[in-house]
Amino acid sequence: MAEAPPAPAAADAGARRAASFVAGGIFVSRLIGFVRDRLFAHFFGSSAAADAFNAAVKIPNVLRNLLGEGALSASFIPVYSAALERADEREARALANTVLGILLLVTSGLTVIGIAAAPAITALVATGFDPARAALTTRLVRVLFPMSALMVLSGWCLGIQNSHRRFFNAYASAALWSLAQIVLLVWWGARAGSLERLAWWLAWATLAGSILQILAQLPQVLPLVRPLRPRVSLDVPGVRETLGNFVPVVTALGLFQISSLIDLQIAAWLPTGSVANLGYATRLYMVPIALFGISVAAASLPEFSRESGAAREALLERLRAGWVRILFYIIPTTVAFLLYGDLIIAVLYRSGRFGADEQRLVHLILAAYALGLVGFSSVKLLASAYYALQDYRTPLRAAGVALLCGTLASVGIALPLRHSPVGAAGLAVGASLGAYVNLAILRRGLHRTLGPLYTAAMWQGTWRIVLATGIAAGVALPVRWVLRSANVFVAAVAILPLFGVVYLVSAHLRGSQEATRWLRRLPLGPRR
Question: In Å, how far from its chain's centre is CA 182?
Fold first, then answer.
């Protein structure tokens, strides 16, 4: 007899627990990452070497993002989870080993090509760099390109762990990637002699961090797929289906990566430091997307895949609950980035070569990205529902239209400002616009497939979130004005926690269970 689906309340509690493990792992890795970013900002600021390093990291990351976490999660997890749901562990292990073998073969070849073609790749995506920056970028790309293959393997480990509902270690292991760089910057930063030499050694530390990230996941992964015997075959059940899913997912991700490379190419023509400033803002706005968007989507995908057959209504309920949970965090984060982003940037980055001018420019870029946070975060969840339903064409079409709209907006805003450092903010505005175009297409398609996606009750809940956010901002803004001349760290410590607590209390008073759960963890919070 088939096992009855979990009750909605139990399913929702399980989804929250899973998302909290994902978010916890991401939080650990991002926290260590911000220590790394602060050290990087201290030594590099918005220098030409910072531009070169950011460009060099982004270029091999294209391969990582195409073949790694996102593509594997979307194409591999639904098939692998379905095998686990059928209790066919032998088929699941064979599928995992075969996918690993194919990944090893493909990424090894692409890595060799990437190292050999580094000068051409740099010339293609960073055409605006002067000869010195281009030469340094090429050297760094050759060191960093093997990282992409390693991180693809890390994405395979993550897919195995997520399918088995092992979430925390899969995401927390990324902290080792940053930790290796922190050790290098602390030990060598003040003694490097030049920023170019420091960037060179930092690239090697980054590569070492990728190896450490994989090693940290293996103790949990190996027992799940043992015996580990990578192979290349198309006859293993599920492999053709996984590869068939993989192509449209990679194509959709490829469109996103093209957009990212277009941004890099445009930023390379802007004043020196624009690529670095864009990188600082990008890493910051990605935190809430990872903590609240990717965490919910990653925890939901295995469950979506298990319920995508007959239990369409269960999938829809999970989707609705996940979306409201994302908005609960993303809406106040958007306002916080707009109003207090300069404080956050100062606390994280203000040191050494990163001064007041860099702080203002990065805040402007961050504010432009913040306008698209709801779109960026929601797209992750809605795309996961499509992947669970084995529909890969709609996310691909949505990504294509979003790329076109976002690129046109970016070019239209940034290029007229190409002689001004604020031009980089135009790239963020274009990306935000593209995210909402993507969201609109995905939402419309799911409405036709599953039924009404956003109910009247969800709209009411959203307005309660908006109201609670407005109250929190109204309380915190006068404090910001009073502390306008205070030390930035003092102001941040006073304002940001105040904003958060007032938001939680206001949301709790309006019936938010998510806020109530957070307040119960505080010493003076409400009790059952």
Answer: 21
Using left for φ > 0, alpha for ψ between -120 and 50, and beta otherwise, residue 352 falls in left
What sign has the CA pseudo-torsion 392, 397, 398, 400?
A: positive
CA dist 61 and 127 (Å) reads 18
Give the length of the chain. Answer: 528
- Judge whether 380 and 297 are in contact, CB under 8 Å: yes
> Residue 13: pLDDT band by 50, 70, 90 thresholds?
low
Cβ within 8 Å of residue 211, ≥6 positions away? 150
Neighbours of 252 (CB within 10 A): 28
Amino acid letter at 92?
Answer: A
Strand partners, 351: 354
Cα–Cα distance for residue pair 494/501, rounded to 1 Å: 11
Measuring CA to CA, how many Å separate 57 from each of 285, 317, 333?
18, 39, 27
- Which letter does DSSP use for residue 270 in this model? S
The answer to whether 55 and 264 have CB atoms below 8 angstroms apart is: yes
Q: Given the structure tokens 């432009």, which residue do they identify?
A: 368
Distance CA 510, CA 470 (A): 13
Distance of CA 107 to the CA centre of its chain: 22
Q: How far apart are the first and last CA of the chain?
A: 38
DSSP secondary structure letters along 426-471:
HHHHHHHHHHHHHHHHHHHHHHHHHS-SS-HHHHHHHHHHHHHHHH
- Could you tell me the two tokens for 473? 């901002």
DSSP state letters, 349-390: H-BTTB-HHHHHHHHHHHHHHHTTHHHHHHHHHHHHHHHHTT
Q: What is the pTM of this model?
A: 0.74
pLDDT 10s digits, 403-445 = 889 989 988 888 888 888 788 899 999 999 999 999 999 999 9
Identify which of 91, 98, 107 has the alpha carbon closest to the alpha carbon of residue 231. 98
Cβ–Cβ under 8 Å, residues 290 and 33: no
